[in-house]
Specification:
Elements (H helix, E strand, L loop, with lengths): L2 E3 L11 E2 L7 H11 L1 E7 L11 H7 L3 H6 L3 H22 L8 E3 L5 E3 L6 E7 L2 E7 L4 E7 L10 H4 L2 H9 L2 H21 L35 E8 L3 E8 L11 H4 L2 H11 L17
Parallel strand pairs: 2-3
Antiparallel strand pairs: 1-9, 3-7, 4-5, 6-7, 8-10, 9-10
Protein name: 4'-phosphopantetheinyl transferase superfamily protein
Keywords: Transferase
Organism: Streptomyces katsurahamanus
């Protein structure tokens, strides 16, 4: 799976990395983290479906999310929930260099996920239809969102409810055939930024906006005035299969953490206890790739 950028100027982080399964291009994910302090990856739901939902390995991978998984009654919702959380844990395992089953997710008041006991790596996830999307950063905060590029948001009049006056005027100046795709771009940027700051849909989309495609993406006030500074960076990509993917990343000003291995960040005694509990003699060489069996 490949990705191509939209016409906006390139951000400082790399394009989303396609991951086809547990033996995917995790080396590229780690390289992006080391070079850019940001890594974004996408995968197909079909490649991360559990073979036997409810199996002991799935329970071990979901950890504290196991009870939430059992409470879900719709089969498709259960599958998507399990696949997205497992992919997220495999991705975090690459950064922390630990087996994915030892990673636990927590959730903030608005439902924003985080890595329990590891605040050096911020995470975000999104999924739509058969696409799973994960973002990781050691810079500060990250938010990601994905949507089909051909989703008829404009045709359904959604622009009147989610766009600022400045954005509405910019959309009206576009040729009719470009208004729909550009509204999808704006929608995913707003979703990504809202997720990054932990607000989700609680932050009204008409209270902030973005400029036209082809310009550096910055948060703008409803009248088009600057809303944030250079501490925020945004990127929008077109992922193979027709999905628009947007990423919002903040820079805390302390620089990215170069060494995110759990053994470096955690008390050695804690690591020793975790290793003993898992019955393992040593740390796997390649994080997620060290997992011998998927489910």
């Amino acid at each position: 799976m490949t990705a191509r950028r939209t016409t906006a100027p390139s951000p400082s982080f790399g394009e989303p990395v396609g991951i086809s399964g547990r033996d995917g291009a995790w080396d590229r994910v780690r390289a992006d983290l080391e070079e850019h302090s940001v890594a974004v990856l996408h995968a197909r739901l079909a490649d991360w479906r559990p073979d036997q939902t409810g199996g002991p390995r799935l329970r071990a991978l979901l950890g504290r999310d196991w009870e939430r998984y059992l409470e879900m009654t719709h089969p498709d919702v259960r599958i998507r929930f399990a696949a997205s959380r497992v992919l997220l844990k495999f991705a975090a395992a690459v950064a922390l260099r630990v087996p994915p089953q030892v990673i636990e997710l927590g959730y903030g008041p608005t439902g924003r996920p985080y890595l329990r006991g590891c605040d050096a790596v911020d995470i975000s996830l999104s999924h739509t239809e058969d696409l799973l999307l994960i973002g990781l950063t050691t810079r500060g905060l990250i938010g990601v969102d994905a949507e089909r590029e051909d989703r008829p948001l404009y045709e359904r009049g959604l622009h009147r409810h989610v766009c600022t006056p400045h954005e509405l005027a910019a959309l009206a100046r576009l040729p009719p055939g470009e208004r729909g795709p550009d509204l999808v771009r704006l929608w995913t940027l707003k979703e990504a930024y809202s997720k990054a700051i932990g607000q989700g849909m609680r932050f009204r989309f008409t209270d902030f906006g973005f400029g036209p495609d082809g310009q550096p993406a910055r948060v703008l006030a409803p009248d088009g005035a600057p809303g944030t500074g250079v501490e925020w960076e945004f990127g929008t990509f077109s992922v193979a299969g027709g999905y628009a993917v947007s990423v919002a990343v903040s820079d805390s000003g302390f620089g990215g953490t170069q060494d995110t291995a759990a053994r470096t960040m955690l008390d050695p005694r804690v690591v020793a206890l975790m290793t003993e509990a898992l019955g393992e003699d040593s740390e796997p060489d390649d994080g997620a790739a060290g997992e011998s069996a998927f489910w």
